[in-house]
Amino acid sequence: MKIARIAAYRVDLPLNEGSYRWSGGKSVDVFDCTIIRVETDAGIVGHGEVCPLGPFYLPAYAEGVRAGIAELGPHLLGEDPTQLGRLNRIMDAALKGHPYVKSGLDIACWDILGQVAGLPVCTLLGGRYGEAVTLYRAISQAEPDAMAESVAGYRRQGYRRFQLKVGGDPDVDVARIKAVAALLGPGEVLVADANTGWLMHEAARVVRGVRDVDVYIEQPCPGYEECLSIRRRTDHPFVLDESVDGLDMLLRGRADGAMDVVNLKISKLGGLTKTRQARDLCVAMGVAMTLEDSWGGDVATAAIAHLAHSTPEEFRFTATDFNSYVTVDTADGAPRRVDGRMAASTSPGLGITPRMEVLGDPKVDLS
Ligand SMILES: [Mg+2]
């Protein structure tokens, strides 16, 4: 089987809440996502999705996905999409770095492999653990009372895990964490994600200010060394996200005892092939995970569901149903949240069918 055509479509995904805000005054109103379609000479078609959280979150931007696919795609035409390890080596040889560009192509080829095998992607990634995957809800940064109100609303929808966007003024952040913690009960989980927003002296004040609150601290500072410094002066469970972009950082974090949980985003690591490798290493090291992506719609959410559902349950800290944050449906068959949880499709591949009328004309079309 050979790759006969690669196309990339741009879809704008407006947010239900109007906007999403996090540290440093950063915000997004409409996400620019790219859906990648890989067609084969056997008539089997696979899809992937990449959606950066704006151009200022990770080293990734929306137009870069399409530009990268135009650069990389010609190297993949004529190659066998079912040989995922081989395909990733070809991508890495043709384009240095740029993991987010490769992610959507890799996901689309997993979708093809699943259809060829007649198996859902989660089975190919290791199996299906449990009935469903527990989700968290990200709470956009706002005043403490507004964030507590938002948590109360999403709690009524069935969520039991919440990730507060902090990383602002330390005194306000302490108030945000305390306002939300007061609402929560047994079995509920609270994470304060600073998204690199604090300097060390600010992070030190916040962790001291919430010393008696049951809260996880996620990526307080920009650099790994600064995070490690905060980690060593707090007994809160600790999550690393932006600092962990591959196996080297996982091994370093393990050696330093730098984290209890890591956040693995599919496009940050370069696709399902590489995220599975990182996931399996975390399982071997006893590190729990948030399994997700930077953002996305139905296709990205399907990929997250397969990755998370194939991860042993005790290692699944949280996952994300990004398709419930946005107003546009891009595919049929994508996971839908029920009572704060979602499940991977049992159909072959990702189990989704894109709505071509929503995708429109391709921005990149290679054959
Ligand atoms: Mg995070």
UniProtKB/TrEMBL annotation:
Keywords: Isomerase, Metal-binding. SMART domains: MR_MLE. Belongs to the mandelate racemase/muconate lactonizing enzyme family. PANTHER family: O-SUCCINYLBENZOATE SYNTHASE (PTHR48073:SF2), O-SUCCINYLBENZOATE SYNTHASE-RELATED (PTHR48073). This is Mandelate racemase/muconate lactonizing enzyme family protein. Gene3D superfamilies: Enolase-like C-terminal domain, Enolase-like, N-terminal domain. Residues 358-367 have a biased composition (Basic and acidic residues). Residues 338-367 are annotated as: Disordered. It comes from the Bacteria. Signal peptide: none annotated. Residues 144-237 form the Mandelate racemase/muconate lactonizing enzyme C-terminal domain.
